[in-house]
Amino acid sequence: MATGIDVAGRRAAAAEVGPEEFLPWYEEQLAGATDTDERAQLQELRDWVAAGNSPDSRWSALQLYDTVLAELPGPFVLFDDDDGCLRTRIGSLLTWFSEFSTTSLARLLVLAAHEKDPVTAPTALLAAGLVGPSATAEDITPRLKDADPLMRWAAASALIRLAALDKAPVGPGLIGRAVTELTAAARSPFDRVTDYCEGDLHRHIQRTRPPGSHPAAVRALDEVGCALLSALQDWARDSPVTAAPGIARSIIRLTVNVVPEPEHPDTADTLEAMCDEHLVLAHAVHSAPGAHHRPLGGRAALDMTVEDRWPSSRLRW
């Protein structure tokens, strides 16, 4: 849900497990069965599949999806209901139906702009970002400056999804601002939540990956980061006076050499955001009372899990 629903992918997967794929198997099993009870059970299942059903959950889930899709836009009348919770649920529901976005997108953007309920409005804004095309970024970007932090979180989450689409008007600088908002949300959770990820804000943020952050790449970078962290901890232990500014310069230098066009304004904005947000947060965690630091090199690193390296009780983002 954090990056939208791949309906085309789900349809392709369901097509591979439809009734026509299972029927020959059931007929073969039925032909070879000798036990009376077993034959009766197989005959019942074979007839059920022959009637156009599939035992695969992906296929049955798609049937339920299409049943609700056929009823749209009927539930739109509930946007005028006095119950804010009901309006919120309908906005969240539309996130699942990107195939209906040509009709729902305009209504979601209007709801996000004029809704007074403090949960319904950000729910509608994020729904628009999850079902809309790349051009939707132009409608959502201004909400990064909204006074409401929940609205800024919704805008940031939506923009990161839209940035992965073709021709999206979302540059590195804007992605940096979005990541900054997500980091701030993880550090200071809201007293209000949306329905996304069943209301689990941190789980939603964790699943909202910027473009290019594929799981395999994340794992590889995690290993590189462990080696780098071990070296930086050695530096801090052996030369505490020069370590702080030296480590900061090393991180900035690394970023300048990895990110293309270091003089580009978008890159400069990203580096500034790193200084303002991530380094301050890292220092706060490193210096927190009771913080403990273990060596991460060699055999110790191989035996550690991701949770060992980055305890979720301390790093919630």
- Range of strand content: under 5%
Mean pLDDT: 75
Structural class by helix and strand composition: mainly alpha
Count of beta strands: 0
Oligomeric form: single chain
The sequence of SSEs as H and E is: HHHHHHHHHHHHHHHH
Low-confidence stretches: 214-221, 278-317
What's the N-to-C terminus distance? 18 Å
Describe the structure.
Helices cover 64% and strands 0% of the residues. With 317 residues, it is mainly α. The protein has three domains: 7-69, no CATH class; 78-207; 216-309, no CATH class. Helix 1 packs across helix 4, helix 2 (19-32) packs antiparallel against helix 3 (36-50) and helix 9 crosses helix 10. The model is unreliable at 214-221 and 278-317 (pLDDT under 50).
In short:
The protein is built from 16 helices and no strands.
Question: Any key phrases for this structure?
Answer:
317 residues, mainly alpha, 16 helices, 64% helix
Task: Indicate the topology.
Layout: H1 7-15, H2 19-32, H3 36-50, H4 57-69, H5 84-93, H6 101-114, H7 120-131, H8 137-140, H9 149-163, H10 172-187, H11 201-207, H12 215-238, H13 240-258, H14 265-286, H15 298-302, H16 306-309
Helix pairs in contact: 1-4, 2-3, 5-7, 6-7, 7-9, 9-10, 10-14, 12-13
